[in-house]
Amino acid sequence: MNPCFILLCLSLDGLYFVITGIQYWITDYLINRIKQPESTVFVTFGVISITAPILGVIIGGNLTTYLGGYLTKNSLYLSCVSAFLCLVCSAPIPFIYNFYGVITLLWFLLFFGGSILPCLTGIMLNTVD
């Protein structure tokens, strides 16, 4: 019966759903639509999917701590800005046919998605009695 917990949990579920869908289909998209060799796509995607979310979580967690912790308005603003930047990075991907443009936007998408996690998870855990 905790609306804050439920809404944050649904937000994180939505984030995981979208990111998982992107990670599942992006290799097929890059191979069949962008016409890149499988070896290039798999290596590039491996590097992107490892580095971007990990750096996003580390930097997002440090920024959240720097802004005063999980329960400050500044950290909520940080989460909103990160979510907006995720949207800005993801929206042009279907319209770009340049391999390097797509993977750059994909890296930033996964980075900003990862940077949302520490703040939202901390807020969600602090709302539980």
Structural overview:
The protein is mainly α. It has one domain (3-126). Helix content is 81%, strand content 0%. It is built from four helices and no strands.
Summary keywords:
129 residues, 4 helices, mainly alpha, 0% strand
Number of strands: 0
CA-based gyration radius: 16 Å
Largest sheet: none
- Which spans of ≥5 residues are poorly predicted at pLDDT below 50? none
> Globular, elongated, flat, extended or rod-shaped: what is the shape?
elongated
What count of domains describes the coordinates? 1
Number of helices: 4
Straight-line N-to-C gap: 11 Å
Task: Set out the fold topology.
Blueprint: H1 3-32, H2 38-66, H3 73-90, H4 99-126
Helix pairs in contact: 1-2, 1-4, 2-4, 3-4
In summary, what is this structure?
With 129 residues, the chain is an all-alpha fold. Helix content is 81%, strand content 0%. It starts with a helix and ends with a helix.
